[in-house]
Amino acid sequence: MDTIRIPSARGSFRVWQRNITIFRKYWKTILFPNFVEPLLYLAALGLGLGAFIQQGGIDGQPYVKFVAPGLLASNAMFAASFESTFNTFVKLKIDKIYDAIITTPVNAEDVVGGEYLWAGTRAALYGTAFLATIVLLGIVFGQPLVTSWWALLLPMMLLVIGIMFSVMGTLFTSLIERIDLYAYYFTLVVTPLFLLSGVFFPVDHFPAPVPQVAWFTPLYHAVNVCRELATGPSVGVLVDVAWILVFTGVLALIPVQIMRRRLIG
Amino acid sequence: MNTETERTKGALRGESTLEARGLKKSYSGFEAVKGVDFKVFGGECFGFLGPNGAGKTTTMKMIYGAVIPTGGELAVAGLDIYHHEREIKRRIGVVPQENNLDDELKVEENLLIYGRYYDLPSKLVLRRAEELLDFMQLSEKAEATVEQLSGGMKRRLLIARALLNDPEIVVLDEPTTGLDPQARHLVWDRLRELTNEGKTLILTTHYMEEAARLCDRLVIMEGGLIIAEGTPWALVEEHVSPQVLEFRTDHKSLEELVPILEAASDAVERTGEESILAYTDDADALLERVRGSGTEIENTVYRQAGLEDVFLRLTGRRLLE
User: Fold this and answer.
1) pLDDT of res. A224
2) Is the CB of A18 less than 8 angstroms away from the CB of B64?
3) Nearest-CA residue of chain B relative to A109?
4) Cys-Cys link to B249, which of A113, A228, B38, B253 (CB 3.0-4.6 A)?
5) A99–B96: do the CB atoms touch at under 8 Å?
């Protein structure tokens, strides 16, 4: 009875399918803010703050080029985090959508698996739209922000990054009873990651233990992967990818078990 | 819809399709269900009656896999619940007590998405959705969103949704709570049709009329235990005398009336400060005795004893919550 549950591919797919069906009805109305927000950061920091950063920029590249791929990674984090926190909470506790699903041959563990996939998909969709925009902007302003064909792998990586942050968000969701507690998650987890993972400045140049601490956090590696794929990767990027896969793999089954126990008394 | 008479969809009519033995559920110290045994046969309508908190919903949830028992055995559609979770869910339909429809979707879309959870081909789901919306008289609402439906329509949609996979057993937790009389009669009518088709129904209800009309057999639960079991008719026969007289009068006359009734009837129950019930085999004779005593009576009501009398006799008249 208390064996470890692993989501089935079939069941997870059905849950993912339900979410995408609903998303297709309203994506146009919500795409705009999700899409404009990283552009605002790009304009304010990349161009605004970037203008004050001396010629030579960071690591020999203009600041806007440095910050754009980082924003791509943090955008995926935000998309997946909102999905696995507020949206999942509403389905779990308010609309009782999961209670309906688990009376069918789709099990509680499949619900969580499907939500991971969906949050990843959403992160990849928004991220790809943002990626397309920065590619275009780069062309228009004659200063390419994405300079490597490896960038074609970015949508797939954004999916993986999205799944990673979905696992983290779902873990928090599985532990709380009240929706206001997400303030803690966003203030103490998401925002510090956003500010301190190398999106805006290279963490590696700080004295110990800052780079060492950063190495143990998820967005740091996501930013590295996005930046390397956008500009041409070194072999070192494989370490970041491996970090993301191991972290996600180790953590993924924990929320599955806790959520199952919440859904099935 | 087709009506096969002899063979039901799963178990043969009259063959056991659901069996519980010593079934228990406790939540950190609180025992919601304290060990119940029951058997449901293919093609019958089996009812669970009981006051709130008796353990009915917990029992239903154990049947449809939303609650894992802490002890005992339970086989649904002939399958052990501990080993055949998905297979059982594939073969049953569930109408939960709480509405959990997808509010963001239209009525028909709710059914289409639900059909996917059973891996039904979309053509088949479309056809069934249309038939079921017609069956529950919701066809004209197919394009409405769930938010636009009345409470009664939502309940009917929940029933339609539970039938989408053509289940052999349908579990209904208070299917008519909150419905107006018209909708309630429609639901009763449809549930009767389902048993005629050979489906097995398991339902909980607070309405004695509903239980008496629909259930072939029923159990009464209280405090996590089954305290009575039988056909509605047999339960009335067994637990109360067939005729009931209710007397209303002032407090003082009522005190005089008590010994007379106690001597001349099978059972007496005070239902309030100024009213009393007497159960008897011969209401005329009892009424004669009361009149002969000269006690002043303001109002007398005569009726046949029913399931409600059994229910109140067994579970008491006090509010339990």
Assistant:
1) 95
2) no
3) B86
4) B253
5) yes
